[in-house]
Write a structure and sequence with these properties.
By secondary structure, this protein is mainly α. The chain is built from 19 helices and 3 strands. It folds into 2 domains: 223 residues, Citrate Synthase, domain 1 (Orthogonal Bundle), CATH 1.10.580; 118 residues, Orthogonal Bundle (Cytochrome p450-Terp, domain 2), CATH 1.10.230.10.
Length: 452
């Protein structure tokens, strides 16, 4: 048989054999996407780390009430954390990572030591650097996952899941992600576009945010506000409870007892998806498309009509989605998007890009409005802009290339992932995560090869 025909035939067959009638989910009480009928998530675990709040339960099980979103890291509201460091005119990602890992805010001495430790470990050893230079590829999330898997080979205690070792590995990964991503970008840019191969050594006195921009752009390529905004992005993306797709992936893989590198590589793969962390790229592509397609960026009628056509799958990528809008938990607002939007506004002023900011803000407002008109009654859910809505625009204003947008999410979220991995492996009553699937295929008899 022709091999291409076989692939075609398999694909045609799968059309039928991979199909599950949606009615069957109702019939067997199966929660699609581990979500209840009212859109709330099925409760599958307990955690002390992050808390994501988007609705309140009405008394007597009478449904959910949409409320402004709240995000707590170890019991502390993220907005308080952000305003706290801003009031002291400091940067805050290192403190956030410490908080997530340990469960408490570091004192001055602990913070200084932790920051020194991160800076020390940010410098990649020669073999790791050489490995990144050899990793050919078009996607930094993929290169990052492969680099993380290679770190396994350099770790003499890679499979040890004792608490001490997990903490050691966690700090090491938080420190190494910025260098891996920056070097991977320069390697890819060199291989694909003939760009210069910059291998800058991170500076011991820089914050993690500044070191990343420095490794990407050199010492003359950024302003203090760029560093402040990137640090804010890192604080805001660091953790989002146990249920988000990539953290849940970390928890599922950790529960089997696998090594840290395998578990984190899986989480990177999850985060890359366009419905999760990869949405920051989708938003910027959609924004670029709208900038080019909409003739008057202030014409609400023109913008809204186009967004409605997107929802009807008539234009753009014809997937029926407005990227950066909607969330599995948040309803009225995503607190991270609100904080990021205000930073984006200040940065747009500094960079002279206020027109684009105003256009993005209009897309946000009309995107929500169009969604509610188009889907509102059928899905009975309020939507808002999520954290991915403004992040790509912010990175673009800092002058970071689109290839690192989703990796930047990983660079921050690694703190949340490792905190959840440590929790998953350290409670007494833990069990391997192993839910059930109901088989709905009819029984079929085995036939010998020459009777098929
Ligand atoms: C860091 C993050 O991961 S934040 C999320 C980033 N992702 C995006 O921005 C992509 C666009 N948004 C989405 O796809 C979704 O809102 C998600 C994946 C974030 C959440 O999905 P869910 O929780 O399953 O959404 P929910 O159950 O409330 O959706 C209900 C309906 O609204 C639709 N919907 C949700 N968001 C959108 C959107 N942005 N545009 C169009 N339709 C949408 C869903 O497709 C679903 O339609 P259906 O009932 O016909 O199947
Ligand atoms: O919580 C989610 O499902 C997705 C999200 O916003 C995140 O992981 O930051």
């Amino acid at each position: 048989m022709n091999k291409d025909y076989l692939i075609y035939k398999l694909s045609e067959t799968v059309k039928e054999t991979a199909r599950i009638d949606s009615e069957l989910f109702k019939c067997y009480g199966v929660k699609r996407g581990l979500r209840n009928e009212d859109h709330s998530g099925v409760l599958v675990g307990l955690t002390n780390i992050g808390d994501v709040v988007g609705y309140e339960r009405l008394p007597d099980g009478k449904g959910l009430k949409a409320i402004p979103g709240k995000l707590l890291y170890r019991g502390i509201e993220v907005s308080d954390l952000v305003h706290g460091v801003q009031a002291e005119n400091r940067l805050g990602y290192e403190e956030t990572a410490f908080l997530l890992l340990s469960g408490y805010l570091p004192d001055r001495e602990e913070l200084e030591t932790f920051t020194d430790l991160l800076n020390e470990q940010m410098v990649l050893r020669h073999a790791t650097k050489m490995n990144i230079l050899q990793l050919y590829g078009n996607d930094i999330m993929n290169i990052l996952a492969r680099s993380v898997l290679v770190l396994y080979a350099f770790d003499e205690n890679a499979d040890d899941t004792s608490r001490d070792n997990l903490i050691r590995q966690s700090v090491d990964l938080i420190a190494k992600f910025p260098s891996i991503i920056a070097y991977a970008y320069h390697t890819m840019n060199h291989n694909k576009n003939g760009g210069s191969l910059h291998i800058r050594i991170p500076k011991p006195n820089f914050s993690l945010a500044e070191n990343f921009i420095y490794m990407m752009k050199g010492s003359k390529g950024y302003t203090p506000l760029d560093v402040k905004v990137l640090d804010l992005c890192l604080i805001l993306h660091a953790e989002h409870g146990g249920g988000n797709n990539s953290t849940f992936t970390t928890r599922v893989t950790s529960s089997s007892g696998t090594d840290t590198y395998s578990s984190i590589a899986a989480a990177i793969g999850s985060l890359k998806g366009p419905l999760h962390g990869g949405a920051n790229l989708q938003v910027i592509d959609m924004f670029t498309h709208l900038r080019e397609t909409i003739s008057d960026w202030t014409d609400e009628k023109e913008v809204k009509e186009y967004l409605m056509r997107m929802l009807r799958k008539e234009v753009y990528d014809k997937k029926g989605l407005i990227y950066g809008i909607g969330h599995a938990v948040y309803t009225v607002s995503d607190p991270r998007a609100l904080l990021l939007k205000e930073m984006a506004r200040s940065l747009a002023k500094e960079k002279g890009r206020e027109d684009e900011f105003a256009f993005l803000e209009l897309i946000e407002r009309l995107g929500v409005e169009s969604f509610m008109e188009f889907k509102g009654n059928s899905v009975n859910k309020r939507v808002c802009a999520n954290v991915d809505f403004y992040s790509g625009f912010v990175y673009d204003m800092i002058g970071l290339p689109r290839e690192v947008y989703t990796p930047l999410f990983a660079m921050s979220r690694i703190a949340g992932w490792v905190a959840h991995r440590i929790e998953e492996l350290n409670f007494d009553s833990r069990r391997i995560i192993r839910p059930a699937y109901k088989n709905v295929a009819p029984a079929t008899e085995y036939k010998p090869l020459d009777k098929r």
